[in-house]
Amino acid sequence: MSLEPRTDPNPPTAGPETPAKGPAIDAQALHQEILDLGTQGMVMNMGPQHPSTHGVLRLILTLDGEEVMACEPMIGYLHRGLEKMAERRPYRHFLPFTDRLDYVCSLANNLACAQAIERLAGVEVPERAQWLRVALMELNRIASHLLFLGTFGTDLGATTMLLYAFREREEALALLEAITGARLTYNWIRVGGLPDDMPETWDEGVLAFCDLLESRLPEYDRLLTDNPIFRRRTEGVGVVSSEDAKAYGLTGPTLRASGVAYDIRRWAPYEKYAEIDFDVVVLRDGDTFARYLARRLELEQSVRILRQVFDKLPEGPIASKVGKVLKPPPGIAFSQVESPRGELSFTMVSDGSPNPVRVHIRAPSFANLTVLADLVVGNKVADVVAILGSIDIVLGEVDR
Amino acid sequence: MIAQALENPWIRQLVNAAMLLAVINLGVLVLIYLERKVAGYIQSRLGPVHVGPRGWLQSVADAVKLVLKEDIIPAPADRFMFVLAPFFVFVPVLAVFLVLPFSSGWVAYDFSLAALYVIAAGTVAIMGIVMAGWGTNNKYSLLGGLRSAAQLISYEVPVVLAILAVVFFAQSMSLVEIAEAQRGFRWFIFQPPLLVAAFVYMIGQLAETNRTPFDLPEAESELVSGFHTEYSGIRFAMFFLAEFANTFFASALAVVLFFGGWDGLPGLTGALWLVLKSYVLVFVLMWIRWTLPRVRVDQLLGFAWKVLVPIGLIVVLWAAASVVYAGGVAR
Q: I need a surface site. Which of A10, A81, A221, B154 has the fewest CB within 10 A?
């Protein structure tokens, strides 16, 4: 896959003027006439309570009929001040709060936070814990991407996809519940490792789930990927060029669908990702369909990673000893994790006290959402829903 | 006494209409239950199971709930239009059932222009939907109303063309005579031009009944149910009822036009054959609904005018040619 940005060899230029035929219609005068009538766009509030804004996002759309003339996203309906809350409590006490960031994939948040603290305090993580963390990440990624497939189908009117994706997601959640005891807010990654080892025969359950998921993927393709109506709704809609994608700071599948091979798991491998063989899914088109397909193909890669984890999983301790009161030396630490939505990173500053001085969370959904307003202008209302769905945001993370 | 009263044409018509109303409402309840069960099985879940054995009283429970619900008229709504709109949608659907022949002689009112009447009366419902969209004074509903106006008017054209092709073959506009012409398994679907016409008709009716992939006026994920967003209680029930009655009517009309009406193997009465065949078509509609995504508004209109209407015109010419030159007349 190439990283080269796409350039148009023949930029559009004004063609030679053609002589007017028939009764001349002065388009400009006509346009002016319409403006003189004083017509305005219809301002429509989409959200914060709307079935397709995936939470409490509010879009102020200015419409010309069905066409979007302007779009202004409003965020903050779910703002809880999590970064500030982190500064008011000891390091490890913030871990449960991170579940509420990207609540569809809370383990990635746990991990990013724990990694930042580990780097700050210089805590080593045992091998087995690192491998299990990879397994948890990928299982959670599968659950998250399945949720995306389902909701994206619903956004486009294919309600059956939701039920099919949730059927498999249910299995993934059952596995996660077996190890963590929770189905959504797991809070299962601790500073220095994991709170407990996996249950016996859990690995068999995961491998069986991998087989099940692989057998169901062709079903999804028949229902969505190969459906001509689905293709026509998504192909060529909301195209992001690779330069734009980089300029907006997009990450995750949203960026990789635009032809940029940037994946933290490969770029700055954490835990045991450096020892795992997997492909970074990169697509070139940058349209809504490519963003959908990137996630659909990543499911296969996650299955591949899960299988390797249980091949290589060593015996050993599950957590390293960490003192009751964690007082990292003064300094700054930075962690990056490839969450299902993109690059999730924590920056933590310590002054030697039990509480962090400053915590900054770089939420992938927040950066990805910035591109929406420019993408939807000129498209239809129905495309707003499709494009928003394909960016796959979680408002808990956008608002923090 | 009763027999004497039935001699009076006025009373007879009234009884017919009352019976029809009962049949339609009961049929719709069954249809709603079926839709849920079919959707359930397609989506690998169960559908209703709690109310009554296998959940078949669910529709009744829902109907009772809707009747008992508070009737809300939003403050900014245009009261007159808001109140009137459900009737404009519901009454035409009932009116078209008047001419639907269930079997020879089993028709509330048969006349020689029934096919034309079905089209004309059915179109009035569009006005109700636009009224609902406008009268609600909700921007989502307005978009839904506008979408349905564009959609229903566009898809009316191919449906009319398809029916016209059938009329050529049957040499009559009476639905009874159209069905009679197909007696003895000479169903119109077996005639090549009418096979194409049947496809045009079914796709057009899919759009006319606001079903996926053409359910844009009430697109849940975009317009939050579109024109009936603000309706609740019995008024909502009327939209709901009209939609399902319309679905059944579209299928029953397809059976009369293309699938031989009440023609079938001996052993069952004609009316049962008609209902049975209609339900098979309804099942196909449900199947489509729970499988396909929704098209976009420009694709929807483009498909009607660039694909369906040209095909419809060709079918009309083809049907006319085969009637005149190949002696394709059924009678």
A: A10
How is residue B229 written in tokens? 């967003």
d(CA A75, nearest CA chain B) in Å: 19
Cβ neighbors of A199 (< 8 A, separation 6 or more) are: A178, A179
Whether B108 is covered by a domain: the verdict is yes
CB distance A158–B294 less than 8 Å?
A: yes
Is B28 a domain residue?
A: no
CB contact under 8 A, A380 and B298: yes
Task: Collect all residues of chain A within an 8 Å Cβ-Cβ radius of residue B297.
Answer: 66, 380, 382
Backbone angles phi, psi at B94, to 5 degrees: -65, -40
Task: Give me the number of domains chain B comprises.
Answer: 1
Burial class (CB in 10 A: 0-12, 13-18, 19+), A311: exposed
In a domain, B33, yes or no: no
Q: What is the pTM of this model?
A: 0.84
* DSSP letter for each residue of B163-183: HHHHHHHHT---HHHHHHTTT
**What's phi and psi for B275, nearest 5 deg?**
-65, -40
**Residue A108 and residue A339 in contact, taking contact as beta carbons nearer than 8 Å:** yes
- Written as one string, the DSSP assignment of A355-382 is S-SEEEEE-HHHHHHTTHHHHHTTSBHH
Backbone angles phi, psi at B61, to 5 degrees: -60, -40
Of B212, B293, B297, the CB nearest to A380: B297
Q: What is the dihedral of CA B325, B327, B330, B331, to 10 degrees?
A: 120
Contacts of A223 in chain B (CB under 8 A): 291
Q: Buried (b) or exposed (e) across A182-201, using 16+ Cβ within 10 A?
A: eeebbbbbbbbbbeebbeee
The residues of A whose Cβ lies within 8 A of any Cβ of B are 42, 44, 50-52, 63, 65-66, 153-160, 163-164, 167, 223-224, 227, 229-230, 232-233, 380-385
Distance from CA of A90 to the nearest CA of B (A): 43
For helices B79-97 and B9-42, the axis angle rounded to 10 degrees is 100
Question: Hey, which bits of A47-151 come out as E strands?
Answer: 58-64, 67-74
DSSP one-letter code for A13: -
What is the side-by-side order of every strand in the sheet holding A58-64?
A: A42-46, A58-64, A67-74
Q: Could you tell me which chain B residue has the CA closest to the CA of A64?
A: B143
Q: Is the peptide bond before A228 cis (omega within 30 degrees of 0)?
A: no
The span from the CA of B183 to the CA of B104, in Å, is: 11
Name the DSSP letter for residue A350: E
User: Which residue range forms the structural domain that includes residue B213?
Assistant: 70-324
- In a domain? residue B296: yes
Look up residue B150 and give its two tokens. 């564009």
Q: What is the CATH number of domain A82-399?
A: 1.10.645.10
Contact A191, A114 (CB under 8 A): yes
Each residue's pLDDT expressed in tens, for chain A with a length of 400 residues: 444 444 444 444 444 444 444 455 666 776 677 667 777 778 888 878 887 777 888 888 888 878 888 888 888 888 888 888 988 888 888 889 998 888 888 999 999 999 999 988 888 889 889 999 999 999 999 999 999 999 998 888 888 888 899 989 999 999 999 988 888 888 888 888 888 888 888 888 899 999 999 999 998 988 888 888 888 888 888 888 888 888 998 998 999 999 888 888 888 888 888 888 888 888 888 889 999 999 999 999 999 999 999 888 888 888 888 878 888 888 899 999 999 998 999 999 988 888 899 999 999 999 998 888 888 888 888 888 889 889 888 888 888 8
Task: Measure Cα distances from A189 to A136, A160, A386 in Å.
Answer: 9, 34, 34
Instruction: Give CA–CA dist B228/B262, Å, rounded.
Output: 36
* Helical pair B9-42 and B233-258, crossing angle rounded to 10 deg: 90
In this prediction, does ipTM exceed 0.90? no
The answer to whether B151 touches B300, Cβ cutoff 8 Å, is: yes
